[in-house]
Amino acid sequence: MNYTDINILELLPQRPPFVMVDHLTDYSEAQSSCDLTIREDNVFCKDGELAAAGLVEHIAQTCAARLGYYNKYILKTGVRLGFIGEVKDLDIVRLPRQGERIDTTITVIQEIFDVTLVNAEVRVGTEVIATTRLKIAQGEQSSE
Q: Model confidence over 74-126: pLDDT tens digits?
């Protein structure tokens, strides 16, 4: 399956201008990836760079896209809201610049009930620009 053909809005509860992923690029239960091209009109873009808060939101939405795909295409249910429960060991080597495409891979460490713990790695090409551990809690089904 070509995951990039899926309209990302089908997988996320977020709506523009707060959508921080362009495509789901890979999916498995253990690991998934998304990309984002940094554009000048991004709400988190300031002075030609994506702010740290935008980078964290991009990672969280990569998790949301994984869960959205799982809920929609595997469980055949609706997209659920998600909440960042914890950001741990955030290491930002540098912020991505306008025009760059970031590729983020999340690896599931543990899933217990509606809480998912992941490691995340953000790259520009082969350069790792950020890593973190995120805890995401799923809430109710989105009203969309």
A: 999 988 898 999 999 999 999 999 999 999 999 999 999 989 999 999 999 99
Asked if the structure places residue 78 within a domain, the reply is yes
CATH of residue 113: 3.10.129.10
Can you give the residue range of the structural domain that contains 124? 3-138
Does residue 72 sit within a domain? yes
Q: Rounded to two decimals, what is the model's pTM?
A: 0.94
d(CA 64, CA 126): 24
- In the chain, the amino acid numbered 63 is C
Cα–Cα distance measured from residue 12 to residue 67, given in angstroms and rounded to the nearest whole number: 9
- Six-digit token string for 60: 């969280």
Instruction: Rounding to the nearest 10 degrees, give the CA dihedral for residues 41, 46, 49, 51.
Output: -110
Contact present, 62 and 120 (Cβ < 8 Å)? yes
The domain total for the chain is 1
Task: Give the total residue count for the chain.
Answer: 144
Enumerate residues 6+ apart whose C-beta is below 8 A from 95: 49, 50, 51, 52, 55, 129
